[in-house]
Design a protein that fits this description.
Blueprint lengths: L1 H21 L22 E4 L1 H8 L6 E5 L9 E12 L3 E8 L6 E8 L5 E8 L5 E8 L2 E8 H4 L3
Antiparallel strand pairs: 1-8, 2-3, 3-4, 4-5, 5-6, 6-7, 7-8
Length: 157
Amino acid sequence: MKNLKLLGVCLVMSLACVCASAQHAIPLNEPNTNKPKLFGNLPDKIPVQIDDLRLLLGMERGTDANLKLGNSNNSPDRFEGTVISSAHKYNNIRSVVVRSSNFNGATLSLSSSIQTDGTVKFTGRIISLQHGDLYELQNLNNQYFLVKKNFYDLINE
C-alpha cells in the first residue's frame, strides 16, 4: 500500500511537470516592418516582354543575364546578374535562378510550364530576404507584369 501511495505521488508530480512545461508559448519571429526597400525607385507595376522571359529560361548556369524592367529599349532600369541555377524537367517545365549584381541581395526566380492546352505559363519573383519589398510576376489580360509587393504580404516567418 505504501508503494501505491508513492507511485501515485510520483504520477501526480510528473503530470504537473508535463502540464507546466506545455504552457510555455512557442517563440515566434515577429515581422520586421522596418526592413529597407530595395525597389523604392521603381514603379509598382512593370511590364515584362514574354520574349525576354523565354530568353532568360534558355540560359545556362554561369551565364550573365539581364532583364529589362520596362517596355522601353532605352530604359535604364535592368535586373542584371549571373544564372546560378538552370533546370529543364519533364519536357514541359523550365526554371532559372539569377543572383543580382545590381540589386544587392536579390534573386530572380523564374519558371515556365506548358499547360495541357499548349499555352505557356510563367511564374516568378524578384526577392531579397534582407529587404521589405519584392516583385511578383503576374499575368494580367495576357500581358505579364512584375507587381511590387511587401515582403510580409508573401512571406510568413
